[in-house]
Design goal:
Elements lengths: L9 E2 L2 E2 L8 H7 L6 E2 L6 E2 L12 E4 L2 E5 L10 E4 L13 H5 L17 H12 L17 E10 L3 H10 L5 E4 L12 E3 L2 E5 L11 E7 L4 E11 L3 E3 L12 E3 H7 L11 E4 L3 H10 L3 E5 L6 H10 L3 E2 L2 E8 L3 E8 L5 E5 L2 E4 L3 E3 L2 H5 L4 E4 L4 E4 L12 E3 L10 H9 L28 H8 L7 E3 L4 E2 H9 L5 H8 L11 H13 L3 H4 L13 H5 L11
Parallel strand pairs: 1-7, 8-9, 8-13, 9-10, 13-26, 15-22, 16-17, 16-22, 17-18
Antiparallel strand pairs: 1-2, 3-4, 5-6, 5-7, 11-12, 12-13, 14-23, 19-20, 20-21, 24-25, 27-28
Helix pairs in contact: 4-9, 6-7
The structure holds FE2/S2 (inorganic) cluster.
FE2/S2 (inorganic) cluster binds next to loops.
């Protein structure tokens, strides 16, 4: 292992200039270095996309350990950090020549099956050529980090606005534990928290047990916590959705969260001139922050009055009901091609970033895992927990609050405050006047994808699942063969099986399949939520005290 006292951290051999607590991805972006690797099958350039540890675009190898997310990793002195894929470098990847020889990708899933005895040899070579990662370096010890077991009354997952309002209103103190992926700030006195710790697994509760919930959480440094709780509140918030278009996986395409995470200081954006995608309050906020760096606002649906007002004040053009067809460029995008919906002519804009802020999705894998009933909300194009009175999910003792429960705007905080009296069945709750997504209301992507697919440029690749490099064409092939439903699509193409757990590709694929299959999105189904929510080192699980995390009802 590196000697911490010796040298600064190095990225690909060069000393790194990292600020205190600064994640690697932001430190590199500050120096104009974004390209971190190449994709699995098509060797496409990869740079940070989500900025919050959900996708696979920023994986690097740290001190011989693969698959470390650069947007979450804060380098330590002496670290040796390299790219995972791209030979000899991510900028010049000679293995990309295989993309010309095999334009549909080296298909290790369905091809190369005969003769059977040679299959393992093929697979080994293909995995290498396709850019699959390497195991940890020889000599890197499989660290077993001692974990712990906690017994609490109330476990709250997330320390955002709704959770803080809830905790302030309940006067929660001893017996309450908050699990937060970042630093839990602003909690009431006496509330204990596990900072920089991600809740990774919440199986259905154990009937009749004193503390029926067993929540498994893992810290950034690999320490696992088994938390046995009587009541669990999921306040995991939401995240910015992706969008399908040709080149949507190019460096420079970011979610709003990704752009905010890479900004060296809040008022300085990580781009020169960006196109913002969306027409709601998220875009209005970005215009207020970075308006002078915005080339245009484009929206798949309508543009809200607050966006129209903010854009006109600073002279930013807006394009409502517009198809984003393609982003082009190499190591960084340079141009986007657009067309007005309803058959409008194509036109293009120069830009070095596309910032996706068109809709928020619930960060709901824990609710799926726990067996809560989920209901499709068409306005967001996603599944949200079906809530009974008092924010109770269909699982007794499990509550959802804030953005993950479908509340928006000021109602995010207010929902936390109103949950307090009903927690643990202590009383009724008044939900009146809270703004939620409207079930059955048309979403901004209503009818968007069928129109888009008809007009996508044929010569470009459209990646439907960036983690696994699954192309839109493969999904179209799946449909043309008569297969139906998102679960079958996952098994046939591999879409949704990557490290992001389908967070970015599955909602878009469900919308697309619903249009192709001419049936409502809920009938297209959903994929099975498999734990853990984030990759967990086996050494963390091995370090837990005896007692075992349950894996089912
Ligand atoms: S950019 Fe790091 S995981 Fe998405």
């Amino acid at each position: 292992m590196p000697d911490p006292s010796a040298e600064p951290a190095r990225f690909r051999g060069r000393p790194l200039d990292v600020g205190p607590d600064e994640p690697l991805a932001r430190a590199l972006a500050r120096r104009g270095r974004r390209l971190l690797g190449r994709s699995l099958r098509y060797h496409r350039p990869r740079a940070p996309f989500c900025g919050v540890g959900h996708c696979t675009n920023c994986l690097v190898r740290v001190n011989g350990v693969p698959n470390v997310r650069a947007c979450r990793y804060v380098p330590s002195p002496g670290d040796r950090i390299v790219s995972e894929a791209g030979w000899p470098s991510p900028e010049v990847d000679l293995l990309a020549a295989f993309d010309l020889l095999f334009p549909r990708g080296l298909d290790a899933l369905h091809g190369f099956r005969r003769p059977a005895w040679a299959t393992p040899l093929y697979q080994r070579a293909i995995r290498r050529l396709a850019g699959f990662g390497r195991l940890p370096d020889a000599g890197v010890p499989p660290a077993v980090t001692p974990g712990e077991e906690r017994r609490v009354e109330l476990a709250v997952v997330g320390a955002g606005r709704s959770a803080r309002a809830l905790l302030a209103a309940t006067g929660a103190g001893p017996g309450t534990l908050v699990v937060e992926r970042d630093r839990a700030l602003g909690l009431p006195d006496g509330v204990e928290s596990l900072d920089r710790t991600t809740a990774a697994f919440l199986p259905p509760p154990e009937e009749g047990a004193d503390r029926p919930f067993t929540l498994l959480a893992v810290g950034d440094r690999g320490r696992a916590h088994r938390i046995r709780a009587r009541t669990v509140v999921v306040a995991t918030g939401g995240y910015d959705a992706s969008l399908l278009f040709a080149g949507s996986d190019r460096p420079g395409v970011l979610t709003a969260e990704g752009a905010l995470a890479l900004a060296p200081v809040p008022e300085r954006p990580p781009f020169r001139r960006a196109v913002l995608v969306g027409g709601g309050e998220r875009v209005a906020g970005l215009l207020a922050l970075w308006g002078t760096h915005v080339e245009a606002v484009i929206a798949p649906g309508t543009v809200g009055p607050e966006v129209a007002r903010a854009a006109s004040e600073i002279g930013v053009p807006i394009y409502p009901r517009t198809l984003l067809l393609e982003a082009t460029g190499g190591r960084r995008i340079r141009r986007v091609t657009l067309a007005a919906r309803g058959g409008g002519a194509r036109f293009s804009l120069s830009t070095d970033a596309v910032v996706l802020a068109h809709r928020r999705l619930p960060n709901s894998p824990l609710l799926f895992q726990a067996g809560a009933s989920m209901a499709w909300r068409s306005e967001a194009g996603a599944y949200f927990p079906a809530l009974g009175p008092g924010f109770a999910t269909s699982v007794p003792g499990l509550y959802a609050v804030g953005e993950v429960a479908g509340f928006t705007g000021a109602a995010i905080t207010e929902s936390g405050r109103r949950l307090a009296p009903s927690l643990g069945g202590r009383g009724p709750v008044d939900l009146s006047g809270l703004t939620t997504l409207l079930d059955g209301a048309p979403g901004p992507l209503d009818g968007y994808y069928p129109e888009l697919v008809d007009r996508l440029p044929r010569r470009s690749k459209t990646v439907a699942c960036p983690c696994e490099d699954v192309l839109l064409g493969e999904l179209a092939d799946f449909h043309a063969r008569g297969y139906r439903g998102i679960e079958v699509a996952k098994r046939y193409t591999g879409l949704g099986t990557g490290l992001c757990q389908g967070r970015y590709c599955v909602p878009e694929a469900v919308l697309l399949l619903a249009a192709w299959e001419r049936r409502p999105a809920p009938e297209v189904g959903r994929i099975t939520a498999r734990p853990p929510v984030v990759p967990v080192p086996l050494g963390a699980l091995a370090g837990l005290p005896e007692g075992g995390a349950r894996t089912g009802p």
